[in-house]
Amino acid sequence: MRAMFANLTRADFGGRPYRDRHVSNRLRVHALFDEIQVAIYRGDLAKVDRLMVKLALATANHARVN
């Protein structure tokens, strides 16, 4: 019986894996970064400012400074 459970991990017991919870946020941050690069290239500084605010809000949950 012990051999049956020897290779199990936490992911085998249901629920969403830790990494999958943050995939959508990570993809959104990468998309914002790409849009910022395009706006910088085109010289659209107003759009760069708006996108930088969105990027700051998207990453605020992960990097809280106390």
Percent helix, as a range, is: 55-70%
Helical stretch tally: 3
N-to-C terminal Cα separation, in Å?
48 Å
Count of DSSP E strands? 0
Structural class: mainly alpha
Low-confidence stretches: none
Strand content: under 5%
Instruction: Provide the gyration radius in Å.
Output: 19 Å
What's the shape? rod-shaped
Give a quick account of the main beta sheet: strands, pairing sense, barrel closure. Answer: none
Describe the structure.
With 66 residues, the chain is mainly alpha-helical. It has one domain. 59% of the residues lie in helices and 0% in strands. It contains three helices and no strands. Helix 2 packs antiparallel against helix 3 (45-59). The protein is rod-shaped and about 65 Å long. It starts with 17 loop residues before the first helix and ends in a 7-residue tail after the last helix. The model has no long low-confidence stretch (mean pLDDT 78).
